[in-house]
Amino acid sequence: MQNSEALALTAVLLAAAGDLTRRINDGVEARGFEGRPAFGFAFARLAPDGATVTELAAHLGVTKQAASQLVDELVRKGYVERRAHPVDARARLVVLTERGWECTRAAEAAAADAVGVWVEILGEAEVRVLCDRLARIAPYGPLRPTW
Predict the structure, then answer these.
(1) Per-residue pLDDT tens over the stretch 86-104
(2) What are the C-alpha distances in Å from 76 to residues 1, 19, 100?
(3) Which residues are paired to 83 by β-bridges?
């Protein structure tokens, strides 16, 4: 692959990721939830069993202070709560509230809508192949937002 082709591939993948993030966030807001993409990246780590602020910071690729500020905001908005850690008495576990779970379900529906546009363009079989190929290149792992 030529350098220019590699650069073009990079640009189109980043554009697709940015468009997908925007569509999901817009869909979440249209469903009545206040948020920003960073919330979704945090929710991905907090579901299903919660996480400490330190674990969330590592997942997001930010400092503990930045993760703590995000958690404070999520607590104020009613999406998460801090609980006693079941194993480590020194730590606090951050878990999704019912409102957080509702927002997560709204994000899932918005993601389905966004991918539905791809299905209309490419067809379901091709989108499944695309998903398989991308998963082979970049298996699921930490989701790090661009702040």
Answers:
(1) 888 898 999 999 999 999 9
(2) 49, 28, 12
(3) 93
